[in-house]
Amino acid sequence: MSLTSDAAATGALTPTKPKASRLSRERIRSAWLFLAPMLIVLAAVALYPLYRTIYFSFTDASLDLLGEARWVGFRNYLEYLDYGNGQGEYFGLLVDARWWRSVWNTVWFAVVSVALETVFGLIIALVLFRKFPGRVWVQAAVLIPWAIPTIVSARMWAWMMHDQFGILNDMLERVGLIDTPIAWTASPETAMIAVIIVDVWKTTPFMALLILAGLQMVPQDIYEAAKLDGVPPFRLFRKVTLPLIMPAVLVAVVFRALDALRVFDIIYVMTPNTDSTRSMSVFARENLFDFDQFAYGSAASTLLFFIIALMTISFIYLTRMNLEGDER
Amino acid sequence: MTAPRWLKTAGFYVLVAIIFLQAVFPFYYAILTSLEDGQALFDVNYLPAVFDLSNYRSMLADGVFGKQILNSVFVATVTVAISLFLAITASFALARIRFRGRGLLLLTILSVSMFPQIAVLSGLFELVRAFGLFNSLWSLVFSYMIFTLPFTVWVLTTFMRALPVEIEEAAIMDGASSFTIIRRVFLPLLWPAMVTTGLLAFIQAWNEFLFALTFLSTDSQRTVPVAIALISGRSEFEVPWGNIMAASVIVTLPLVALVLIFQRRIVSGLTAGAVKG
């Protein structure tokens, strides 16, 4: 967290004032020059496409006729269709039960998986924080799920969760927890559980590493003092360790939550076309490319973007993130 | 309440064993499956029973999979090279020069890294088609910038800020231009950081699925994640699990090896990328 070097840099240069200001003017000009290529590329891959996505959500664009998209206002979001006989009906994303189901699925997925990852990540971090023989090996092993591509983990687990030949059912039967095999990914009741298991397995290492980094920043003399005073370990953890690592944990939770809200790969590969797991991203992509509803899919993407943007902004505001890296 | 000491130690090691096993077992089981063929596949084994390389042979003999691996190598390498090149000067400016709007800029870059990919998919699809890049690997190199660039800029900025000022001051006193400072002073010091960042960006690009699924349409152009996701049999009961596991092991083993070799660096790179602030 020693990011405060450049404050000292300008301080060191102030004595020769006139020269320094010319120098710093030059440096500022070169700064923008150095930034320009990166900013242009980012604008081309992020800002412009985002603007186009939002634009398409207000049109009747279809996959093959993007160029002829006509402006239709809010019709993709909400539209009242009057049948002319005093009756009518609402259409659009905001009254689409399938959309709301996918919103609910995504939120449920994010809350449960991030909660489990936080608990398991904390446990693993606390274990790895202790010195014991073979710790290097355990830490290396913990990284393996993280290194495996999401698609590969989805496939691996789909095989382990196979209803007839899967090793997971075999294990559970041997232990006596179940007596008939579970159709993990095929049945609506367990599909979401299956997806969450894979996600938790894959991303807990990330959480554990971030929390471990937080633990390593806690000054060790606190623990020596506590030991001398004879504070019981659990109370020490609750009163000292937890509050001190809370900022690191919170950042990790937010990062994971934002990630979980855009979940796509695992669900698309493990449980395609199931109402019980369809996430917002899967919903949007289906409409964009499979159902020839490009504009409608764009509207769903736009809504997802605003949900995540809102969360990001409130997160930055709540944690008052120090972006300048100085003046602290 | 106070358990005997040996019991506590035993409990701790049981916990360690559980953590170790859950992390390693699925990959171990994928390797085990990939070495089984025919009927052996459908008996649940916990220990290696057969050693049959026919799944690997059939995957690699099929020329398309080899081509798909090369596609992934090409896309990930070029993406990383371009991102590092663009990020090194940008992060110098962000880390070392104070100017108005720097905080806002860092905030923008951070928020781009939090973009849901789906939110740019329609717009990117239009761009890719307009540039004539549909079904070309360059469409991926281009679109992957959306996550590799913010990430490399962010991490390199953090690393560069941690370097002492004195080296730079001396160079300024000698009248070196900013570009010379980057090339002669920072680049040699930043090698380790660039290797870490490059490796992490490589892994991200190697694993990407959504853009690769959308922008490539023929088998010979696909990258490996999409290829693995699309391997399927004629019916639900004919899914070639042995082949899928062999392909999975082939594309994962190099990554696992890299991660284990660069373990320490990766941990520091990940935490620099995430827990800043």
TrEMBL record, chain A:
Transmembrane segments annotated in the record for this chain: 31-51, 107-129, 136-158, 191-215, 236-258, 294-318
Protein name per the record: Sugar ABC transporter permease
Principal subcellular localization: membrane
Highest classification ranks of the organism: Bacteria, Pseudomonadati, Pseudomonadota, Alphaproteobacteria, Hyphomicrobiales
A biological process term (GO) from this entry: transmembrane transport
Record localization: Cell membrane
Pfam families associated with the record: BPD_transp_1
Membrane-topology annotation of the record: Multi-pass membrane protein
The UniProt record lists the keyword Ligase: no
Cellular component terms (Gene Ontology): plasma membrane
Keyword Endoplasmic reticulum attached: no
CDD domains: TM_PBP2
Species, as recorded: Roseitalea porphyridii
UniProtKB/TrEMBL annotation, chain B:
InterPro entries: BP-dep_ABC_trans_perm, MetI-like, MetI-like_sf
Residues annotated as domain ABC transmembrane type-1: 69-262
Localization annotation: Cell membrane
Recorded GO CC terms: plasma membrane
A biological-process GO annotation: transmembrane transport
Keyword Cell membrane applies: yes
SUPFAM superfamilies in UniProt: MetI-like (SSF161098)
Protein name: Carbohydrate ABC transporter permease
Topology versus the membrane: Multi-pass membrane protein
Lineage: superkingdom: Bacteria
Keywords tagged on the record: Cell membrane, Membrane, Transmembrane, Transmembrane helix, Transport
Family statement: Belongs to the binding-protein-dependent transport system permease family.
Organism: Roseitalea porphyridii
Residue ranges of the TM segments: 12-31, 69-92, 104-125, 137-164, 185-206, 244-262
One matching Pfam family: BPD_transp_1
